Every structure is written in C-alpha cells, then in structure tokens.
Amino acid sequence: MQPILSAAHMADVDRLTTEQFGIPGLLLMENAAVGAVLAIEQQFGPIQRRRVRIFCGKGNNGGDGAAVARQLWMRGARVEVLLFGKRETARGDARVNFDIVARLAEASSRLRMVEVQNEAEFTSVLESSKSRFNLHIDALFGTGLTRGLEGLFVKVVEYINSTRAYIPVCALDLPSGLAADSPHPVGVHVIADLTVTFTAPKIANILPPAGHVNGKLQVVDIGSPPHLARATERHRATYYRITELGVRDYLIRTCRMPDAHKGHLGHVLLLAGSRGKTGAAALSGEAVLRAGAGLLTIAISASAQALLVSQCLPEAMTLPLPDDGQGQLTEDGLQAAFAAANQHTVCAVGPGLGTEPTTRRLVQRIVQEGQVPTVLDADALNCLSPWQSGRGTAERPIILTPHPGEMARLLGVPVNDILVDRLGAARRLATAYHLFVVLKGYYSLVATPEGDVYINPTGNAGMATGGSGDVLTGILAGLLAQTPHLPLEATLAAVYLHGHAGDLAQEALGERALVASDILRFFPQSLKHHTQVS
C-alpha cells in the first residue's frame, strides 16, 4: 500500500535522503523535473514546439518549476518562466535553478524569464505577451503552504483558472492554494488538469474536496529510499492509499490450493433480511459466494424465509428463526440466532435486518459475547447506536461498514461533523474500541485499531444506490471467511474490489442507470483481473 505523507514527514524524507544517503537536493530536484516532464508528455502529448508558461514562487516548488523549464526547453519547447519575486532573494537549490534558467535565457530565444513584483507588473506581462500558450504549469507553492493566498497570488491563480478552458494546467506537487495536510482548500486555489506529486501523495492530493482540483494525479519517484516514506525517526506514515498491487498480492498469496474443498474456504453466517427487505439478504448472500466463501447460511425470520428462497440463491442454505408471525424474533429466535453466530467462520449482520427490540438485543449480544470475526452493517449499526457495545480483539476482529449518517449515529454527533473530518471520525471510533471501521463514500476510508487509515481510490457516484453497501458486506464476509487471520488485508481488498467492480459497471452502463446488482454482476470480472499473475 502507498504511504500518504504529511508536509512535515515529506520534509524529513527530503532532508534524510541528503544527510544519510548523500543524494544532493539538486539531484532530487532534477529527478522531479525529469519525471514531471515525462508525465506531462504522457498526459498532453509531445512537448516539442509547444509554448509553455510556468508560474514560479521563490521557494523549492518554484525551483522545481525552473528545473522543469530547462527540461522542456531541452526537448524543444518554447518556455516562459514568470518568477514572482526577485531572483536574488531566492535561496538554496531553487536559486541555483533560477540562475541557470536566467543564463540560458540570455543565450536562447526559446527560453524567457520575467521577474514579477506586483499586480501592475503581472498585468503588463499579460498584456504585452504575443504568444498563445499551450500549457500552464503551476509551481507557485508546494507542501509548505498552510494559509490562504493573498494579494498578487490571488490574481495569478484567478488568471490561471480563467484560461483553463483553452490552456490546460499542470500543478507541481499540489495545486497552489491547497494545504498539504488538509482535504479542505484554505482559500483561492489552482484547478489543475494534471498534478505531478513527488515521492508520495499528500492528503490534499487525494481526499475531496481538495482532491477534486488535482485532476489526474501522477506520483513520481525522485530517488528517496522507500523506507523513509514509511517511517523516519520523527514521523510514521499513518495514511495509506490502497493500491491494485497490494490487493493483487493478497489475492494471489491466498489463492485456492489444487486440493481445496468447501470446508477449507470458510462458512459464513449472514444474519440479514426481514419482511419487505429480503432483497438485501439476497444481494449480500450472493456477494459472499462470489467472493469465494465455501459455504453460506442465511439466518432470517421464519416468516420471511420463503420469500428469500424464491429470490434465486440456490447455493445458500437458510436458517429460519422463530418469530411472532409478523417478523419480530421471539426469544427462541434470538437464542437460535446467537448460537448459530458462534458456529461459523464469520458472522455478518445487518443488511435488511430491521431494528425491532429483540433484534436489537440479539445484535448487542453478538457484539458483546460473540467469538468469531464479525462484520456489522446497515440495521446492525442502527441497533448499536450510539456505540457502547464492546471491543474487538486481535483474535476476534469486529468490522463496521457505516455510511456517514450511520457513522454520525454511532458517534452521537451531527452528520456534518463526520463530513468535515471523515479521517478523524473513522480513526476515533476505530482506536477507541479496537475496531476496523470502513467509512463508506467517495474515497471510502478503512481505519484500523492502531489508528492507521487507508484511502480507497476506486468507485464512482453511480454506486450511490440502494443495496451497494449490502454487496460490500457480502464481499467482505466472503473474503474474511477464507482468511480470518488477515482481517485488514481482507477488508482492504473487499473495499477496493467492490469499487473496481462498480467502475467496470459504470464504464459499461453509465452512472445514472447503475444499480447494486450491476456491481455484483461485474464483481467476478474484477476478481479475475486481480488474481491473474502478470
């Protein structure tokens, strides 16, 4: 999985790369420039003879921009560098690259540097320009920015954005105006078509709403040792992006042996469905089996069993739970369900379950006294809100899969508090009760009992449809049943594959027409893709 770094951690990586490994900052800046130009050509096509304007601040991000200018010039582009500030006040590696560009500009008509001190000078540059540019590159501010832009820089950013309809924008490291450690813009900011970030992504590269303005994100390795991105003496990565490579590795490592039989592959008890909501149980149940679990038993109130059986899931067994004829479990039904919960490899609870009093008591007892790995979703979460029910353990992991509304009820806070700080909310619940928390939504999050948070890049708005979460519950339970000793890996794979299947469905059907059963229909294709050895 790919670390996502804070600004402080990133600065530590750069410093230690030089101090411990002797790789000078100028070389890192050069590597960044070469990688950025390759990404630019991959996104926008060959750069030769194109006209590029680069907006540079005086710091290291501007120094990266100056290095990019030279690389573009070497490839035959016509490049104009606007340096906002005086060159002689720049320092370190950035100053070196500004000086190089200034000297080259004296000798070449294809390279120009202009120092801009105020709004009047900026306006003059724009008015006097006779060139029609093909690309704008934003190198104003990098990971060091923590507050909103002011004065001249607001005007510059507004100009870049105003021309974006006909001049595409590439941002270096992150779009200027974003704070690296926040998913929320701190003021006026560049809207990029491509962002080339270095070594590892930052929160503002990934999470919305800031992540929306990055355009396509390309991560460039500039030569820092990979272990520094995971941890330095002062910093440890606690945010990660789920990657295709990581999911593929888990699936291939845990593939079926040639002599496998159904008893080797786990038996899931799915406690789901009720009168009027049997579809949720059917969707979730099929997902359990499609994910590869060997056996599935769906426990459901006796009065709803016949309807569930009629919904064409012949591979599943059913366990009718005694009820009062109206769908509410009796005490005998409660006892039967609890006994069954501890007799299977994994217990998944919630889709379409209902929240009647005996159901609430059953769910609470399963959480407090259960003995097998447990997945909780939908009505199970509503039965447990606010969360006071118990703790997971290493031997018996508990995995919650709330959407923001369910998360708000679990924590007893307004839903807006969750939307403002999704990372903090997921981490707070996970660490307080030793849980795995899957906070669903655009860029779903997986928080661990230790406080790490994994961000999922797959999925789309078409998956915002009833039953999508039921499918995820089934996929998760099915993978967990096969690898109960790997709860984190199973959870990460389930979230990623669920989103990827949704992406395949969206590509084939569009977003508006997509329904949950389409995610399920494309899931085998996603699973096959990620289990093939390349």
Architecture of the largest domain, according to CATH? 3-Layer(aba) Sandwich
The overall average pLDDT, rounded, is 94
Give the overall form: elongated
Biggest sheet features: 11 strands, mixed
Question: How many helical stretches?
Answer: 20
Q: Please report the first level of CATH classification, the CATH class of the largest domain.
A: Alpha Beta
Q: Approximately how much helix is present in the residues? A: 40-55%
For the terminal residues, how far apart are their CA atoms? 18 Å
- Low-confidence segments, given as residue ranges, are none
Number of E strands: 18
Keywords:
534 residues; UDP-N-acetylmuramoyl-L-alanine:D-glutamate ligase; 11-stranded mixed β-sheet; 7-stranded parallel β-sheet; 44% helix; Rossmann fold; 15% strand; 20 helices; alpha/beta; 2 domains; 18 strands
Q: Topology of this protein?
A:
Elements: E1 2-4, H1 7-21, H2 25-44, E2 51-56, H3 60-74, E3 78-84, H4 92-107, E4 111-116, H5 119-128, E5 135-139, H6 152-162, E6 169-172, E7 194-198, H7 203-206, E8 216-220, H8 226-230, E9 239-241, H9 244-253, E10 267-271, H10 278-290, E11 295-301, H11 302-309, E12 317-321, H12 331-341, E13 346-349, H13 357-369, E14 374-376, H14 379-383, E15 398-400, H15 404-411, H16 415-420, H17 422-433, E16 436-439, E17 445-447, E18 453-455, H18 468-482, H19 487-509, H20 516-531
Parallel strand pairs: 2-3, 2-5, 3-4, 5-6, 6-7, 7-8, 9-18, 10-11, 10-13, 11-12, 13-14, 14-15, 15-16
Antiparallel strand pairs: 1-9, 16-17, 17-18
Helix pairs in contact: 2-3, 3-4, 9-19, 10-11, 10-18, 10-20, 12-13, 15-17, 18-19, 18-20, 19-20
